[in-house]
């Protein structure tokens, strides 16, 4: 544990994200404090609309102009929230990479796939095109893409969703980044593809010893890839800890509910909807849907309680 | 979280274009009562006056107030432009939607007809039609509408075909909607924005080609004022009294500019890509 | 009740539309009253094409689809409209199933107006409010546009819109693959509940074996455009 502390890659302190809209400011991410260690694979689990992608984009300074970020985030000791766009852009290209969500729309439809991967490499490494192409091809081979090398000359529309996702993975990882943000890698993919993408991604990041922040709503993805899991609900962390703890013995009622909603666990749905971010309930944000909610939950906003072993939960009744 | 925001405030084109259009509309509505001079009254004692207080745009070769003639000319031109726009829009949209929605051999035939029309340069074709039908305002309108409907048809067809692929079209069919109802309730609302943009943008070119035809003597007949005709009238005095052609020319240019800017602005307004992207997740 | 007999469909794709792919090849299946039939298969195996043929949205190249013994492609106009009422389909992406510029109230009122289910506008509103309550939705979303609601809400509305026509058969084409797990559970539960209550035959299409297992009485596997019966 002690050793890991020293290899902290990101330290995020009370990060908040607001969106300025016509009416009022909407808080998308609230008081997010978290550390990401070197070589670790952290998974951010939550429903769509809970602010998980916003958090990822805030970390990478990729939010639209009407967003405001407060708090501090340190990357290798460097504060990044206040950092100039130019300085950070250099970092983002070389050490930090992102695999965006939406395989369908994240690739340039007019550019050949191999070229798109190559592009990433040539922007940052001054190598001649022959070397680059070789590197790209070997990477695509490791991603088990079929029809090599012909596929590198295909346009995105000629590939299936799973293949496009793998091309995106290749583009993200080709520069050997130290930190990789993966946003919903399996959205819209079907079963077989999903497994394949995840297995390949896992193999790659293990080989490269890349730190990963994986954003997903899919339990199975979290299960097969993550070391640690953070569960998010309505813009804040409700529970985090090691994978086995959170995914197999969840403490927070929301995490429990998510687990019970899986088809293999019998579809025990959580009642109601997760609130839109401009209508966050008072008190505990989960209390209107919580089966164990008491009067205190409706009044007071719980803080994260430390349960030991790197595990924290935002619930008054975490122990019981 | 989703936020949708129209950036009308920042849409400068829309505002500038809108301002010009407002001025034009003002002139069209109140112009005749502001003019103290009859645009048709000939008085040779006043001929070829330079712009002064009494005649802000000067007088022409027959002593008529150029300002009054421009005001009435603009009215005529706009009347032609709007009628042409409406006719060509209706024809074009009908043909385009029919072609795009039904597809198959209907599409094939309609598109070949359209290509024949498109194969000729606009003005040449309009001239040919006018040559056959004879001059005059009515025929001018017919000729221009027959040339211009292709623009709408092309766009309406493309948009309809794009919309047809959308899932909600399929859902609408599955719901039990008939073809006619789908076109009315689903297709038309989807393309109306684009049509509006195109219609606005086409006023300028119509005024110009209308003016061209009149300039060539095939459109509105003398002594009625029309912008192209007015420019033509000044041709004989272009060296000695340039203002006779200058002012109608300026007004033509300004009107065209106004409609084009407004159209561009509308286009930005309707273009989903320029709308601030909805932030989700 | 709804029966497909040896239906096939192929599409021309690729550059110059010269590659022909066989989406569905010689498939026969039958859905009976009140039955919950699950159809599993990888994506791209022709599940959706089969669903659309069953719903009469695309015409099969070969074979016939029959509803109560009548070929649905040969129905006269009136009967075709009635067929649409009896066989409803909900799609994978609920947000794309609604007209983006139509408010949700209008979208929901479509089936009522199309089939003249009620006489007056007041009755229409009442009917919708009642239906919304049954679906666990609040009426404040009436005035919103499809992109302003969540995927789960949209899928509920799609389901509601279909159920208002009191169909005999409901075809659900991957109804939850775009949704989160917790929402998926809600939607599937709702589908199961409403179809059981009204004795609607359900054809549920999914790539997720777990979903199918939890939802259906009978399962069909589809593999590369053909069926394996279970």
Largest interface: A-C, 27 and 25 residues
Low-confidence stretches of chain B: 1-6, 274-281
**Outline type of chain B:** elongated
User: What is the helix/strand order of chain B?
Assistant: HHHHHHHHH
* Silhouette of chain C: globular
Instruction: Give the total of beta strands of chain C.
Output: 10
Indicate the CATH class of chain B.
Mainly Alpha
Overall radius of gyration of chain B: 23 Å
> What do we call the CATH homologous superfamily of chain B?
MetI-like
TL;DR?
The complex is a heterotrimer of chains A (320), B (281) and C (230). Chain A has 320 residues and is an alpha/beta fold. Helices cover 33% and strands 24% of the residues of chain A.
Tell me about this structure.
The complex is a heterotrimer of chains A (320), B (281) and C (230). Chain A has helices at residues 2-6, 52-59, 85-94, 113-124, 129-142, 161-173, 191-208, 219-225, 243-248, 253-260, 295-299, and strands at residues 8-20, 25-37, 41-45, 67-75, 78-79, 96-99, 179-183, 211-216, 228-233, 236-242, 305-308, 311-313. Chain A is of the alpha/beta class and 320 residues long. In chain A, helix 7 (191-208) links the parallel strand 7 (179-183) and strand 8. The longest helix of chain A has 18 residues, at 191-208. Chain A is globular and about 65 Å long. Chain B has a single domain (12-34, 64-270), classed as MetI-like (MetI-like fold, Orthogonal Bundle), CATH 1.10.3720.10. Chain B has nine helices and no strands. Chain B has helices at 12-34, 66-102, 104-119, 122-133, 137-164, 167-175, 179-215, 227-233, 243-270. In chain B, 41% of the residues are buried. Chain C is 35% helix and 27% strand. Chain C has seven helices and ten strands. In chain C, strands 6-7-8-3-9-10 form a six-stranded mixed sheet, sandwiched between helices. In chain C, strands 2-1-4-5 form a four-stranded antiparallel sheet. Chains A and B meet through helix 2 of A and loops of B.
Name its key features:
heterotrimer, A: 320 residues, alpha/beta, Rossmann fold, 8-stranded mixed beta sheet, 4-stranded antiparallel beta sheet, 11 helices, disordered N terminus, B: 281 residues, mainly alpha, MetI-like fold, 0% strand, elongated
List the topology elements.
The complex is a heterotrimer of chains A (320), B (281) and C (230).
Chain A: H1 2-6, E1 8-20, E2 25-37, E3 41-45, H2 52-59, E4 67-75, E5 78-79, H3 85-94, E6 96-99, H4 113-124, H5 129-142, H6 161-173, E7 179-183, H7 191-208, E8 211-216, H8 219-225, E9 228-233, E10 236-242, H9 243-248, H10 253-260, H11 295-299, E11 305-308, E12 311-313
Parallel strand pairs in A: 3-8, 3-9, 6-7, 7-8
Antiparallel strand pairs in A: 1-2, 1-4, 4-5, 9-10, 10-12, 11-12
Chain B: H1 12-34, H2 66-102, H3 104-119, H4 122-133, H5 137-164, H6 167-175, H7 179-215, H8 227-233, H9 243-270
Chain C: E1 2-13, E2 19-31, E3 36-40, H1 47-54, E4 62-67, E5 70-71, H2 77-86, E6 87-90, H3 104-114, H4 121-134, H5 151-163, E7 169-173, H6 181-197, E8 201-206, H7 209-215, E9 218-223, E10 226-229
Parallel strand pairs in C: 3-8, 3-9, 6-7, 7-8
Antiparallel strand pairs in C: 1-2, 1-4, 4-5, 9-10
């Amino acid at each position: 544990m002690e050793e890991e502390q020293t290899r902290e890659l990101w330290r995020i302190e009370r990060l908040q994200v607001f969106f300025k809209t016509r009416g009022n400011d909407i808080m998308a991410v609230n008081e997010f404090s978290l550390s990401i260690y070197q070589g670790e694979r952290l998974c951010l689990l939550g429903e769509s609309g809970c602010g998980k992608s916003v958090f990822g984009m805030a970390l990478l300074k990729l939010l639209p102009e009407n967003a405001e970020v407060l708090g501090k985030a340190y990357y290798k000791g460097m504060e990044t929230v206040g950092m100039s766009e130019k300085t950070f852009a250099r970092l983002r290209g070389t050490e930090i990479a992102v695999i965006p969500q939406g395989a369908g729309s994240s690739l340039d439809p007019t550019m050949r796939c191999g070229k798109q991967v190559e592009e990433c490499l040539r922007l940052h490494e001054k190598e001649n095109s022959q070397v680059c192409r070789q590197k790209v091809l070997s990477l695509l081979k490791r991603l088990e893409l079929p029809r090599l090398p012909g596929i590198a000359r295909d346009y995105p529309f000629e590939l299936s969703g799973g293949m496009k996702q793998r091309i995106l993975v290749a583009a993200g990882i080709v520069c050997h980044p130290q930190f990789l943000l993966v946003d919903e890698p399996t959205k819209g993919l079907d079963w077989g593809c999903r497994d394949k993408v995840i297995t390949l991604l896992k193999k790659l990041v293990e080989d490269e010893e890349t730190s990963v922040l994986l954003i997903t709503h899919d339990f199975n993805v979290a299960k097969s890839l993550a070391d640690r899991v953070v569960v998010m609900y309505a813009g804040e962390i409700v529970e985090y800890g090691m994978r086995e703890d959170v995914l197999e013995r969840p403490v927070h009622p929301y995490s429990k509910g998510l687990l019970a909603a899986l088809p293999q666990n019998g579809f025990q749905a959580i009642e109601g909807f997760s609130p839109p971010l401009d209508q966050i309930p008072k008190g505990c944000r989960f209390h209107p849907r919580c089966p164990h909610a008491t009067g205190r939950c409706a009044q007071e906003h719980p803080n994260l309680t430390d349960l030991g072993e790197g595990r924290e939960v935002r619930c008054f009744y975490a122990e019981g | 979280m989703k936020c949708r925001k129209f950036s009308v405030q920042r849409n400068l084109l829309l505002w500038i274009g809108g301002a010009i259009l407002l001025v034009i509309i003002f002139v069209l509505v109140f112009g005749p009562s502001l003019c103290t001079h009859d645009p048709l009254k000939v008085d040779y004692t006043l001929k070829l006056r330079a712009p002064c207080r009494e005649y802000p745009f000067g007088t022409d070769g027959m002593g008529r107030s150029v300002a009054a003639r421009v005001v009435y000319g603009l009215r005529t031109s706009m009347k032609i432009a709007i009628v042409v726009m409406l006719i060509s829009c209706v024809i074009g949209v009908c043909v385009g939607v029919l072609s795009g929605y039904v597809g198959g051999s209907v599409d094939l035939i309609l598109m070949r007809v359209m290509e024949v029309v498109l194969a000729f340069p606009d003005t040449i074709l309009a001239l040919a039609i006018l040559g056959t039908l004879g001059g005059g305002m009515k025929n001018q309108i017919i000729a221009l509408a027959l040339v211009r409907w292709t623009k709408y048809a092309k766009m309406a067809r493309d948009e309809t075909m794009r919309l047809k692929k959308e899932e909600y079209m399929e859902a609408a069919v599955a719901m039990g909607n008939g073809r006619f109802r789908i076109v009315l309730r689903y297709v038309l609302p989807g393309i109306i924005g684009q049509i509006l943009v195109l219609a606005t943008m086409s006023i300028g070119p119509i005024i110009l080609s209308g003016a061209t035809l009149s300039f060539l003597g095939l459109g509105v007949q003398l002594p009625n004022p029309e912008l192209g005709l007015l420019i033509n009238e000044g041709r004989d005095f272009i060296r000695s009294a340039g203002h006779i052609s200058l002012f109608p020319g300026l007004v033509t240019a300004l009107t065209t500019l106004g409609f084009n800017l407004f159209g561009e602005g509308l286009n930005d307004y309707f273009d989903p890509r320029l709308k601030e992207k909805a932030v989700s997740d | 009740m709804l029966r497909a007999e040896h239906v096939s469909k192929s599409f021309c794709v690729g550059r110059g539309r010269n590659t022909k792919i066989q989406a569905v090849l010689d498939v026969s299946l039958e859905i009976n009253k009140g039955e919950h039939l699950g159809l599993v298969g990888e994506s791209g195996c022709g599940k959706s094409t089969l669903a659309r043929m069953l719903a009469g949205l695309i015409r099969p190249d070969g074979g016939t689809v029959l509803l109560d013994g009548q070929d649905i492609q040969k129905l006269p106009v009136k009967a075709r409209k009635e067929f649409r009422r009896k066989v409803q389909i909900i799609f994978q992406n609920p947000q794309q199933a609604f007209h983006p510029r139509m408010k949700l109230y209008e979208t929901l009122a479509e089936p009522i107006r199309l089939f003249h289910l009620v006489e007056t506008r007041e009755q229409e509103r009442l009917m919708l409010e009642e239906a919304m309550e049954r679906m666990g939705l609040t009426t404040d979303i009436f005035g919103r546009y499809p992109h302003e609601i969540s995927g789960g809400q949209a899928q509920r509305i799609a389901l509601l819109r279909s159920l208002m026509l009191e169909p005999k058969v409901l075809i659900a084409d991957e109804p939850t693959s775009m949704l989160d797990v917790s929402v998926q559970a809600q939607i599937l539960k709702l589908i199961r509940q409403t179809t059981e209550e009204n004795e609607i035959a359900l054809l549920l299409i999914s790539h997720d074996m777990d979903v199918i297992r939890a939802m259906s009485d009978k399962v069909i596997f589809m593999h590369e455009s053909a069926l394996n019966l279970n």
